[in-house]
Design a protein that fits this description.
Helices cover 45% and strands 20% of the residues. By secondary structure, the chain is of the alpha+beta class. 30% of the residues are buried.
Length: 791
Amino acid sequence: MEMKNGKELPIVLKVSFDKLLRHYDSMAQSEDIYLANKAKRILAAQAPFPELRDGFTDFSLLEKHKDVISLILEDTFPEPLTHNEIKTAALPYDNVIFNSTERFKKIVKEAGDDFKLEIGDFSNDLNYIMACTVILNFHYGFNLDFKRPFFYNIPDAKGVMRHYRILYNADFMDIIPTEKAKQLNQSDVDELLANFENLDLWKEKIPPNSFISKGFVVSNMFDVTAEHSISEIKSSLISNDKRSQEGFMGNVNEVFRSLFNLSGIRTGFTVYNPKEDEFERVYGPNVQSFLLQGKENEACKDALCQASYKKLLKDNTYFAISNVDQYFEISGGTAPYKNLKEQGVKSAIFAPIAENGELLGVMELVSFKTNELNSINAQKLEDVMPFIVAAVRRSKTEEENLIDAIIQHECTTVHSSVLWKFEEEAKRFIAEDLKGGRPSFKEIVFNDVHPLYGQIDIKDSSQARNFAIQRDLMIQLSDINDVLTVAWQKNKLPIYEELIFRVNNHIDDIKETLHTNSEQAIFDFVKKEVVPVFEHLKRTDTDLGKNVITYESNIDMSTDSYYDHRRNYDESVMRINRELASVIDEKQESAQAMYPHYFERYKTDGVEHNAYIGDSITGEREFDKLYLRNLRLWQLQVMCEMENVHYNLKPELAVPLDVASLILVYNTSLSIRFRMDEKRFDVDGTYNARYEIIKKRIDKSYIKGTNERLTQPGKMVVVYSQKKDELEYLRYIKFLKSKGYFDGKIEIVELEGLQGVSGLKAIRAGILYRPKNKSSEKTYTYQELIEEIQA
């Protein structure tokens, strides 16, 4: 016999109730009159139809005898449980179902007319082999374990996929050999065990239709949607290959719909960047974030309200919004309610993906129905979050490894000009190790190289930073004073008056000058003294609570203080550094093409750079002083261009900071050594340390006999000690004046002696500027440029 779908089986399927009826034969002899009469009634109903005992393959008889079959199965399918249990009577290995509970019928009906009931992840070939293993166990007596869970995947009326585990009861089955059945021994079984996927071999040992399966099976089903969803989440999120597939997010959405039994919910993810305290987009096919709403990244304090910020980032607990529209109105349209409302979201759950107090990201569940997601069903996430955390942790590790690989490949601390030396040493290290020695990585030293140093420093950066902090503290203390004054006027509690007195003392303390310890003292005062009082006011007085909330709305969540002027300063410094660094990085490519040299630059309050050029760095290429002079001229020209970039940028800065440029000319060659602990080059030897001392102190020096600082905005300063260096740079400045870099105003000054260093002189040359919005032929001195900008 063949299955309904035309595939072969090793057994002929016969429907028979003989084994169950034999139970009623015994029951009819019972001394219990009730049981005996019941059994006799069932046996009398079956008696006219012997085929129900003998078995049949004509499945049309199932419909013909359905009433008698229902009577025979009435104990197996008790009426009081029919609306609760999910149960069927059927043939094994096929979907021939001839009796079922009302709940099962309802589940299949709600799936729709197009739904076809099939066991999930079960192929026809596997069906054949599974039937063979049953035959090996029950007929041949070989103990084989082929038990595995089987499932029906059935959508409900809302379209949510539900998963039902099937447990088979084969108590009413007999397996009978036919003339096609073969004798099998242990070697046959051993061969089958070694070739599980060889269907032809299984058919050879246990041919099609070589046994009769007489009887039926009872299938009990249990809704395991939650457990299945958790398993699917684990499989989907932890598997590398699945996460990169195009349909990954669709599968994730489907799994969470099953877990929550909600057909319309959608899933989003964001990654948390602790360094910047911001959320970042997750890159992947169709991965989105409802918090970011299409943006690449956003500061957490801008993407969240105070309550959600605290719950997600501080407490690492769920934040549920059951009614987005309501909270949008209450908050006055702030984040995250504004973004959610604009996307049509009506309810949402944000779940922190956190491990040991470290936030890795946020999982977002959103619904387009009010109250569909809430703080109660948010608890369903408890069982799945460990798998999500594990997946995100692994993704972050993989990303970090990839970033490290890219850094090593693209921008390693081992500069390309000296990489050959490191490769030579690595090869020697490996060769020594293969010989059985105890190799050590020798220090990399380059002798007889000529240094170049330059910096573009942000002028008076410490004063500007302190001024910004001072302004923020003054405003914050003033706002605190306003709240406390209202509280004092309303309640006349002496403690409010005492706090006002202390706030005024702090204001007086920083009004003129910000002292070293003032910022921390005020921060501690606010945290320990003011915040508890404000929390009390929010709890006890609605009107005063509104004043406190207004004050708190100005608090930066990452610093727990006012951060307006300081933010402007920090962002201005960062933008200056970024723009200046990009100029010299770009220009470095052409400089390396002229003659290879070691180069490094780093950002402080401005941009500094070191360069070293010499024969030992280039290896095979011959060095000539011509290349040193060329690099010096290149440095002078590039720093003038960096000055121009800054002064074109200055009108766009929140804080219009000035810069001052300086070049140090060192006439003596020296040695540099790679410091393994710091992963960078440094000058080598006591004698050469003088160069480092000058570098560290030169920008703070004064012109001899005056209180005038050496570095000034609008002037290029070249510091030197030898007359020949002076003449060399005067030539360069004269040449660059002809190209519109300098205005021709030059002064030569002597420096006040630095500690351990004396005899230094400097050239100060006025720089010309070309505003980007003006004619490229028009140039300006620094003073003219400032007047032009302010006009």
